[in-house]
Amino acid sequence: MPTPATILKETFGYDTFRPLQHEVIENVLAGKDTLAVMPTGGGKSLCYQIPALILPGPTVVVSPLIALMKDQVEQMRASGVAAVFLNSSLSPEAYAENMQAVRARQVKLLYLAPETLLTPRIFNLLDALQVSLLTIDEAHCISEWGHDFRPEYRQLVEVRRRYPQAVCLALTATATPRVRQDIARSLGFSQANEFVASFNRENLYIEVVPKREAQRQVLRFLERFKDQSGIIYCFSRKQVDELAAALAHHGLAVRPYHAGLGDDERRRNQEAFIRDDVQIIVATIAFGMGINKPNVRFVIHYDLPKSVEGYYQEIGRAGRDGLPAHCLLLYSYGDASKLQFFIDQKKGEERRVAMAHLDAIVRYAEDERHCRRKPLLAYFGETFSAEKCGSCDNCNAEPPALEDITLPAQKFLSCVWRTGQRFGMGHVIDVLRGSKNEKVLQNQHDLLSTYAIGKDLSEKQWQGLARQLLQQGYLAQSGEFRVLTLTEKALTALKKRAAIYGQLQEAEERPRNEKARQTELEYNNALFAILRQKRKDLADEAGVPPYVIFSDKTLVEMAAYYPQSPRSLLIISGIGQAKAAQYGEIFLSILRPYCEKHGLKEISRPRTVSSSTSSAGRKAKDEGNLSERTLLVAEAYNTGESVATLMKRYNVSVATILDHLTRYAVAGKRLRNGVDLQALTSTSPNEQQAVFAAFDEFGTDFLKPVFDKMGGKVNYDELRLLRLMALAEKD
């Protein structure tokens, strides 16, 4: 029987699982509904693709975009996996052909849009099959608190009720704790079956710079990424068209993408980008959801995003192959004001939520002191403990030079006080600069002592000063209209005339510390270019994107290790059996003569054996791969402490303690068979012996074969306990 680890290597060509992949896969195979939150590029797809090749019935994948379905199916077929999609892009003949393939049980993976799935035609098709796994991709669309809520996603719970035998796996790359709760509640998931990977994408360099001559800044940035793929996000369709035209005028291979273009033109432009016919796409945020192009080397935000969550998802489209990528945000307060204008057209809760999103992204963009990853990860409930990440502008820039801004700061704070702490930043600045607008005159603020005392500074300078006072804790901002109030710190500073430091002038682009982080494998650039061209030729001939053939990472390893035989080619990341058979000799016919001509010898690629390759592989794990908590729990248990005592000490459930003990035993460590394990089971001695015999027959890696062998008479919780007893008995 194939295991997840053997499928990982033989079908997909990878030696090791990424963080949490194996845990999610095992949970799904154990028949447990699962919510998995993994960053873009974190390997979510394998979490359902591998179970699909093990489970008996078909796997249904709900996906919101046609482009994503097409892309996934092409990649599955290239890896030798039977997959189809059903949507409106297919001709009637192709649609009927795919329906027949599903009906004939020739398909392991069926991709559908939610509105397609929720039709009588598809229900009739699936009713005749035993669906094993229902996967809901982009699951944040279920939540009204998600950045891309779709009402039809709310109806997917009906599908769950219709096919109760199917395990349900919900996947998303961006979900705050609140959104995760909403997803789990909507689908009826247990909190215990939530897996949240780190949101930290170490290969992304994150940078925010003041926006001045934006086109010039972009052109200068692009000089560093010649012939590299990238996405530039703009706020409006007009801005997209203008910037795309300007870049094309400078000889760059670029296309626009936004909802105002015709369907055919939009599809052609997207296809040209995906297939490397053009290198740059300039787009509104309508572009990119579900685009699985792994070799995007940069993402530029030409305008301020609407939210931290949207920003995180958009930069997540860079560097999905794990190679270094650069994310640049051009920021001006004018962009924030523009978003504020549109938010002001909203009402009630919708306005409040939009304002909260805007405040968060503005705070993020304006922070020049702290590591970019800290607030970004904190937004998703994750703590980044390192002082510096080494891969963002704030961690690599010289500290900003501070000056004494006490006098203008006191003017601003005093004006907030004298206007009654009832107004936002804009009104306070109007009073300071002596405006005669209706609001100032109506409130008789032209009679205040602070009226017109700030004419020496521009509106932009006052805005910058106010934002620094907010960041430093002198001001608080609250309510729908972002009213400013003084904090205790501000009152003390005014009373004692305490010095306040900051930057009065708008900051120039800061000098960067150019100490490079060596994250990229050294490889032969000339050979890489030849391999990339061959990949492009093969992709054009097959009518698929180049990355369906091989990813950039695979080509980089070829150009670094110079494999000379089919066997050594299979060790390269991303080359499974099907791709080796189809493309191996083609690429070897380039590698061999190139290496011979240049006197290059094959270099052995360090091979990492997956910790979950097999039971034997698991036993080879050392203590360094077990968490400190697991080691403490297991060692305490081995010295005679009971499960009940450990539950009380760590304030956790029995399932958590048993999970720690199982991890310890599976890693090949000796675990005593305490009598309290026997006391926890409600199975009869005969049932226990039958389960132990089944574990001997199928191994202890997965519970489903044993569950099936027992005809479902012993539930999974009991099987976990009996597995632990079996492992302990063996020692």
Can you describe this structure?
The protein has about 725 residues and is an alpha/beta fold. About 45% of the residues lie in helices and about 10% in strands. The chain contains 35 helices and 17 strands. The chain has a 7-stranded parallel β-sheet with strand order 3-4-2-5-6-1-7, sandwiched between helices. About 40% of the residues are buried.
Radius of gyration: 29 Å
Overall 3D geometry? globular
CATH superfamily of the largest domain: P-loop containing nucleotide triphosphate hydrolases
Strand content: 5-15%
Total number of helices:
35
Q: Can you give the mean pLDDT? A: 85
Note poorly predicted spans.
513-519, 608-624
| CATH architecture name of the largest domain | 3-Layer(aba) Sandwich
What is the strand arrangement across the widest sheet?
3-4-2-5-6-1-7
Oligomer: single chain
The CATH class of the largest domain turns out to be Alpha Beta
Number of structurally distinct domains: 5
What is the straight-line distance between the termini? 25 Å
Structural class: alpha/beta
Main sheet record = 7 strands, parallel
